[in-house]
Amino acid sequence: TTTTTTTAPPVTTITEFARPAVTATRVYVEAPGRISNLTTSAGNDSINVTWTHNFPSDMAEFTVEYKHSNGTVKQEQVKVGQNSARILGLTPGTVYKVRVFSTLFPSVTSNVTDTETSPVTPTAEIAITDGVVSRFVPVPTVPAEPSITTDATTTTTT
Question: pTM score > 0.70 for this model?
Fold first, then answer.
Protein backbone atom coordinates (compact mmCIF):
# COMPACT_ATOMS: atom_id res chain seq x y z
CA THR A 1 0.00 0.00 0.00
CA THR A 2 1.02 3.48 -0.72
CA THR A 3 0.20 6.35 1.59
CA THR A 4 0.12 9.92 0.24
CA THR A 5 0.19 12.86 2.59
CA THR A 6 -0.98 16.27 1.33
CA THR A 7 -0.32 19.51 3.21
CA ALA A 8 -2.93 22.27 2.87
CA PRO A 9 -1.77 25.87 2.32
CA PRO A 10 -1.98 28.17 5.36
CA VAL A 11 -5.37 29.80 5.88
CA THR A 12 -5.55 33.62 6.29
CA THR A 13 -8.44 34.87 8.35
CA ILE A 14 -9.60 38.46 7.79
CA THR A 15 -11.74 39.93 10.47
CA GLU A 16 -13.74 43.05 9.59
CA PHE A 17 -14.70 45.27 12.43
CA ALA A 18 -18.12 46.76 12.28
CA ARG A 19 -18.09 50.54 12.00
CA PRO A 20 -20.29 52.30 14.49
CA ALA A 21 -23.28 54.03 13.00
CA VAL A 22 -22.76 57.76 12.70
CA THR A 23 -25.74 59.92 13.43
CA ALA A 24 -25.62 63.53 12.36
CA THR A 25 -28.02 65.95 13.90
CA ARG A 26 -28.56 69.40 12.50
CA VAL A 27 -29.84 71.97 14.87
CA TYR A 28 -31.36 75.05 13.35
CA VAL A 29 -31.40 78.06 15.59
CA GLU A 30 -33.75 80.83 14.66
CA ALA A 31 -32.17 84.24 14.88
CA PRO A 32 -33.63 86.30 17.69
CA GLY A 33 -34.14 89.38 15.54
CA ARG A 34 -34.12 91.10 12.18
CA ILE A 35 -32.32 94.10 10.64
CA SER A 36 -34.38 96.64 8.72
CA ASN A 37 -34.62 100.24 7.54
CA LEU A 38 -31.02 100.56 6.33
CA THR A 39 -30.34 104.15 5.34
CA THR A 40 -27.17 105.77 4.09
CA SER A 41 -26.04 109.30 3.36
CA ALA A 42 -22.74 110.25 1.81
CA GLY A 43 -20.20 113.03 1.98
CA ASN A 44 -17.03 113.44 -0.11
CA ASP A 45 -15.11 110.70 1.65
CA SER A 46 -17.59 109.22 4.11
CA ILE A 47 -20.89 107.36 4.39
CA ASN A 48 -23.23 107.52 7.38
CA VAL A 49 -25.11 104.25 7.94
CA THR A 50 -28.13 103.71 10.21
CA TRP A 51 -30.48 100.76 10.69
CA THR A 52 -33.08 99.41 13.04
CA HIS A 53 -33.28 95.96 14.62
CA ASN A 54 -35.26 93.99 17.15
CA PHE A 55 -32.42 91.92 18.63
CA PRO A 56 -32.16 91.58 22.41
CA SER A 57 -29.51 93.97 23.73
CA ASP A 58 -27.09 91.15 24.63
CA MET A 59 -27.19 89.90 21.01
CA ALA A 60 -27.11 93.27 19.25
CA GLU A 61 -23.69 92.90 17.61
CA PHE A 62 -23.46 94.09 14.02
CA THR A 63 -20.95 94.36 11.21
CA VAL A 64 -21.05 96.97 8.44
CA GLU A 65 -19.82 95.68 5.10
CA TYR A 66 -18.99 98.00 2.23
CA LYS A 67 -17.83 97.11 -1.25
CA HIS A 68 -15.92 99.55 -3.45
CA SER A 69 -16.93 99.65 -7.12
CA ASN A 70 -13.54 98.02 -7.90
CA GLY A 71 -14.65 94.90 -5.96
CA THR A 72 -12.72 95.46 -2.73
CA VAL A 73 -14.84 94.42 0.26
CA LYS A 74 -14.23 95.61 3.82
CA GLN A 75 -16.04 94.78 7.03
CA GLU A 76 -16.08 96.75 10.24
CA GLN A 77 -17.58 95.50 13.49
CA VAL A 78 -19.74 98.06 15.27
CA LYS A 79 -19.77 98.56 19.05
CA VAL A 80 -22.32 96.32 20.79
CA GLY A 81 -25.72 97.97 20.98
CA GLN A 82 -25.04 100.58 18.28
CA ASN A 83 -27.28 100.95 15.25
CA SER A 84 -25.32 103.58 13.35
CA ALA A 85 -21.82 104.01 11.99
CA ARG A 86 -19.79 106.42 9.89
CA ILE A 87 -17.34 105.00 7.36
CA LEU A 88 -14.45 107.43 6.80
CA GLY A 89 -11.59 107.71 4.32
CA LEU A 90 -13.54 106.64 1.24
CA THR A 91 -12.81 107.65 -2.34
CA PRO A 92 -14.83 110.70 -3.49
CA GLY A 93 -17.22 110.12 -6.41
CA THR A 94 -17.29 106.33 -5.93
CA VAL A 95 -20.24 103.95 -5.60
CA TYR A 96 -20.16 101.64 -2.57
CA LYS A 97 -22.52 98.74 -1.85
CA VAL A 98 -23.36 98.86 1.85
CA ARG A 99 -25.09 96.31 4.08
CA VAL A 100 -25.30 95.46 7.78
CA PHE A 101 -25.40 91.95 9.19
CA SER A 102 -25.56 90.32 12.61
CA THR A 103 -22.12 89.37 13.85
CA LEU A 104 -23.59 86.46 15.84
CA PHE A 105 -26.04 85.36 13.11
CA PRO A 106 -24.31 86.28 9.79
CA SER A 107 -27.22 85.05 7.68
CA VAL A 108 -29.36 87.84 9.16
CA THR A 109 -28.62 90.81 6.94
CA SER A 110 -30.12 94.09 5.86
CA ASN A 111 -30.85 94.91 2.27
CA VAL A 112 -27.88 96.09 0.18
CA THR A 113 -27.88 99.73 -0.86
CA ASP A 114 -25.74 101.53 -3.43
CA THR A 115 -24.35 104.79 -2.08
CA GLU A 116 -22.15 107.19 -4.01
CA THR A 117 -19.74 109.46 -2.22
CA SER A 118 -19.83 113.06 -3.44
CA PRO A 119 -17.22 113.99 -6.01
CA VAL A 120 -14.68 116.63 -5.08
CA THR A 121 -15.29 119.82 -7.01
CA PRO A 122 -12.12 121.85 -7.16
CA THR A 123 -12.58 125.51 -6.44
CA ALA A 124 -10.30 128.21 -7.73
CA GLU A 125 -8.87 130.98 -5.63
CA ILE A 126 -8.15 134.21 -7.41
CA ALA A 127 -5.74 136.79 -6.11
CA ILE A 128 -5.12 140.20 -7.62
CA THR A 129 -1.73 141.69 -6.85
CA ASP A 130 -0.58 144.91 -8.53
CA GLY A 131 -3.21 144.43 -11.23
CA VAL A 132 -2.04 140.89 -12.01
CA VAL A 133 -4.65 138.16 -11.67
CA SER A 134 -3.33 134.91 -10.24
CA ARG A 135 -5.45 131.79 -10.12
CA PHE A 136 -4.78 128.93 -7.70
CA VAL A 137 -6.56 125.60 -8.02
CA PRO A 138 -6.15 123.39 -4.96
CA VAL A 139 -5.31 119.76 -5.59
CA PRO A 140 -7.74 117.32 -3.94
CA THR A 141 -6.13 115.31 -1.17
CA VAL A 142 -5.90 111.55 -1.23
CA PRO A 143 -8.35 110.03 1.28
CA ALA A 144 -6.97 108.31 4.35
CA GLU A 145 -7.39 104.58 4.93
CA PRO A 146 -11.06 103.74 5.45
CA SER A 147 -12.21 103.56 9.03
CA ILE A 148 -15.49 103.43 10.86
CA THR A 149 -16.62 105.44 13.85
CA THR A 150 -19.35 104.84 16.37
CA ASP A 151 -19.71 107.03 19.44
CA ALA A 152 -16.22 108.56 19.17
CA THR A 153 -14.54 105.17 18.81
CA THR A 154 -12.52 104.78 15.62
CA THR A 155 -11.31 101.50 14.20
CA THR A 156 -8.87 101.74 11.32
CA THR A 157 -8.85 98.93 8.77
CA THR A 158 -5.66 97.24 7.72
Answer: no
